[in-house]
Amino acid sequence: MKPNPSNNKLFKVSRRDFVKIGALGSTGLFLGVPLGCKQDKNAFLTGREDAVFAPNVYITILGTGEVQLIAHRSEMGTGIRTSLPLVMADEMEADWTKVKIIQAVGDVKYGDQNTDGSYSVRMFYQPLRVAGATVKLMLMQAAAQEWQVDISECSAVNHEIVHSSGKSLGYGYLAEKAGALPIPEENEITLKDSKDFKFISKETVIYDLEDIVTGKAVYGLDVQIPDLKVAVIKRNPEAGAGIKSFNSDMATAIEGVSKVYKMESTAFPMGYNAPLGGIVVVANNTWTALKALDTVEVVWDKGINASYDSNAFMQQMQRSVQKEGQVKRQQGSATKALKEATKVIESDFLVPHLAHSPMETPCAVARCNADGTCEIWAPVQSPQWVRQAIAEALGIEESEVTINVTLLGSAFGRKSKPDFVVEAALISKEMNTPIKLLWTREDDIQHDFYHSNCAQHIKVGIDKNNKVTSWVHRTAFPSISGTANADAKGPSSDELCMGVLDMPFEIDNISCESLDAKAQIRIGWLRSVHNINHAFAIGSIVDQVAQAREMDPIDNMMDLLGSDRKIDFTALMEGFNNYNVKLEDYPYDTHRLKQVIQLVKEKSGWGKSLPEGKGMGFAAHRSFLTYVACVVEVEVDDNNNIKIPMVHFAIDCGVPVNPDRIRAQFEGGAAFGASLALKSEINVKNGAVIEDNFNNYLVARITDAPINTAVHFVENEEKPTGVGEPPVPPFIPALCNAIFMATGKRITRLPIKL
Amino acid sequence: MEKFTLNINDQKITIECAPDTPLLWALRDQLRLTGTKYGCGIAVCGSCTVHLDGTAIRSCSIPISAINDKAITTIEGVGKDRLHPVQKAWIAENVPQCGFCQSGQIMSAIALLEQNGNPSDADIEQAMSGNICRCGTYIRIRSAIKNAAKNNV
Ligand code: FES
Ligand code: FES
User: Fold this and answer.
1) For residue B119, which phi and psi values (nearest 5 degrees)?
2) DSSP tag of A507
3) Whole-angstrom Cα Rg for chain A
4) What is each CA distance from A681 to A252, A357, A691, in whole angstroms?
5) What ipTM describes this predicted complex?
6) Where is each 2Fe-2S ferredoxin-type domain found (chain B) (predicted)?
7) Most buried residue, A554, A715, B16, B53, by most Cβ within 10 Å?
């Protein structure tokens, strides 16, 4: 298989880009010591210890045979720190036990590092395969030269180049020689056939596994550097509002407190970088800082969102979706078809604000140095963005900022925003000392970038032949961009492409509409983003439609999807966004969606008879270019306690790069969905968030999450697509539909209250 | 500031801190035992779970002055010489995703298995319901505990 050069901007290297040979010895000179001079049985496995072969930014082979692979995306639990290096290791025929993974600092030279939107594998699968294959070719060239044979007689096998005669040379041995070769052109590279994969699509455990279970893994708050002081901040309950006055006398009297001061607030909408401001306490250790903070008395000022009440806002949005909105996609005349319909199924759907509440709260270590440079250690999803934000906040060049990425104790989108890291840097600058900033759980839940609350109305018309003839979907929610832009009045079309405008049903009369709703608190993207709201509504109404048509829900869904086709959304509306990639490259293929539905039907025992109190529900949704169908089994007891004994997912994510981690994402995605469906809700009153910790912002525990989750893959050779976010959207309506079957109650509002 | 001599992971260590300092922050800030994590500070998430004389407790909610000479075991202590069978079971099931909650999960699981060598589903749910995992690794936690039980921890 030949790579397509146009896919591969990262590796535009020419023959002139000779590799730097690491002559790292004390003289700094290349000494020409004969290679492999050690007279042991490993003589031809390793070379000069200081030899370094680094043909691209991702791969380095040392004379010792160690292969260092760069993980340039952030590890927040998806396994990406393992999966992308695996791709390179596979193409280069490396021995995984000789691989060392090195986490990249934030730097544009690595290409996109924004670990968000479920696209790490999709974006880097091909380029990293090419990177690995390039290295393999160079090692083969080096061996062929050494043996004076034709390269066709050489092959790469488990960290060695083997000649057809049986002799072999190790990668370490060849490193120096390969480093002297010009980098091959991309059209000289041959990628492996998928049937020869050693790691890709196989089971490999995550690189950090043992460190995690022994407590050695380093997350943000675990970073230790000399002279660290701990900072905590008391923020105005209303995001962006300022401070009238404060009294810190008691706090400063506490032994170990270095300073209590006011950090300026940035008025709403402050964007994603600006600190919220507040009263900062810096102390010798965490407990002292927390205790001192508690004693600070503050008189808060009011800002423009002082009257924000999320309940009233929801009612207002719900009223608004009863009337026609701005039509963003239109086919035929839904109004006319609805008039002619013999049955109209309609319902409102409401979803509250939600908080990310990653297990590890936001935190960062910052050291502003005397020479004006700044170094950061933090759990961030987007180190390049953080680098920019810090440079801007401190008024220095990006080149003067180093961002070290620690492991992330989960993130779900929260840690892609740089605000908390900027806070740490500003405090370090103010204090002239290294700072570890802790966000308490209360800070985290009360000052998040919340998931958009949302009201929807869907109306479906069925004609006298039991055919669905019209579809009206209205949605109202505050836009994420409202956090940065005061003019953002409501949903953008990009946001509407997450579940509203990309509706795949073959219905003649369609109207997809949005209604304005203004952000009055920081809004941000949460795992699966607006798909959560829209898949919940669509997946639920479709079940009602099946009931009205007296059809099996899966048969009904297949009928709605209609013919096998690649839907040309760009012809149907202005400004269609296909997760930032071309529809030609990643089409919306109804055939692929139908395939996962068929598969989940077969595997889940769909249609089996169930005892009273049990139910099975179904939903399917494509998001982040991945097709997912889901069947949830539920048990509801007399006290309305909900148990989820079994979940089946059938998925088409193209080539599954690391199947075990994909399964893990789906198991976890179902648990995350269970949190949103059954437990979580953020309420705002007078501009302030009411919930403040896990005792009132509830999330799924072992008692609530699914007991079993099975993941079934559609096998194909399609390009890999994301798996972090796609599990969540269909799970929620499948659960709701299962509850309907078990209890007869329709769920139209989250979290579910029976 | 007061001096406290603690018995941590079979070692006696004296530290100086305010008597109301939660064990969690003493472990993390003073003793640099950072395997024990902060998740909520109010005993509802389980990230900070350690053993006090073999019982699982939330270290965020017990002050250093209440510990006296009771034996404290942290995640760093359980697998000091070689991996504990529960850690091995965790590896075999590839349980962790982000891993942040897992020290606490493992400490709760070890305490459970020490008291009950053959826990039922209900026993597991009861013992583990104080430990949140935002990544949702509950299915594998359940099976790792069962496997560890089978292998006679
Ligand atoms: S940090 Fe102690 S239980 Fe959450
Ligand atoms: S593994 Fe991430 S919170 Fe449990």
Assistant:
1) -70, 140
2) -
3) 28
4) 37, 12, 8
5) 0.98
6) 2-78
7) A554
**Beta strand pairing call for A454-462 and A343-351:** antiparallel
A434 and A568 belong to one structural domain? no
- Spatial neighbors of A287 by CB under 8 A, at least 6 apart, are B17, B18, B20, B21, B22, B25, B26, B29
- B76 closest CB neighbour out of A215, A361, A708: A215
The CATH number of the domain holding residue A182 is: 3.30.365.10
pLDDT greater than 60 at residue A26: no
* A433 shares a domain with A457: no
Chain A: nearest CA to B31, how far in angstroms? Answer: 12
Residue whose pair of structure tokens reads 């003793």 in the numeric block: B31
A121 domain-assigned:
yes
Mode of pairing for the β-strands spanning B11-17 and A67-71: unpaired
Lookup result for tokens 């998928």:
A194
The three-class DSSP label of residue A675 is helix
| Domains contained in chain A, number | 3
Helices A419-431 and A383-394 pack at an angle, to 10 degrees, of: 40
Please tell us whether the domain made up of B2-76 is placed in CATH 3.10.20.30.
yes
Query: Sorting pLDDT into bands at 50, 70 and 90, what band is B105?
Result: very high
Q: Specify whether the CB–CB gap between B35 and A216 falls below 8 A.
A: yes
Query: Residue A42 above 80 pLDDT?
Result: no
Task: Please tell me if the CB atom of residue B124 comes closer than 6 angstroms to any atom of ligand 1.
Answer: no
Same domain, A550 and A410: no
pLDDT over 50 at A667, yes or no:
yes
Q: Tally the C-alpha atoms within 13 A of residue A610's C-alpha that lie toward its C-beta.
A: 21
Disruptive mutation site among B9, B98, B126, B147 for chain A (greatest number of A CBs within 10 Å): B98
* CA B109 / ligand 1 centre spacing (Å): 16
Residue A750 covered by a domain: no
- Average pLDDT score over residue span A174-201: 91
**Joined tokens for residue B49:** 């779970």
| Domain region containing A53 | 15-213
Q: Note the pLDDT tens digit of each residue in B69-103.
A: 999 999 999 988 899 999 999 999 999 999 999 99
The CA angle A409-A441-B101, to the nearest 5 degrees, is 35
Residues in contact with ligand 2 by the CB-under-6-Å rule are A 77, 359, 410; B 96-102, 133-135, 137
B residues 25..64 contacting A (CB < 8 A) = 25-26, 28-30, 32-42, 44-45, 47
Cβ–Cβ contact B4 with A under 8 A: no
CB-based burial of residue A187 (10 Å sphere; 0-12 exposed, 13-18 middle, 19+ buried)? Answer: exposed
Ligand 1 pocket, residue B46 CB under 6 Å: yes
The number of residues making up chain A comes to 754
All structural domains of chain B with their residue ranges: 2-76, 85-150
Give the class (CATH, top level) of B85-150.
mainly alpha
Residue A166, amino acid: G
As given in the structure block, the two tokens for residue A688 are 């302030």
Under a CB-based contact definition with an 8 Å cutoff, are residues A616 and A610 in contact? yes
A112 and A191, same domain (yes or no)? yes
A508 and A533 assigned to the same domain: yes
Query: Which of A167, A185, A213 is where one domain is finished?
Result: A213
Q: Which of A203, A212, A703 to mutate to test the interface with B (most CBs of B within 10 A)?
A: A212
Tell whether A110 and A42 lie within a shared domain.
yes
CA distance A739 to A467: 26
Same fold, B2-76 and B85-150: no
Give buried/exposed letters for B2-21 (b at 16+ CB in 10 A, else e): eebebbbbeeeeebebbeeb
User: Phi and psi of A133, rounded to 5°?
Assistant: -65, -35
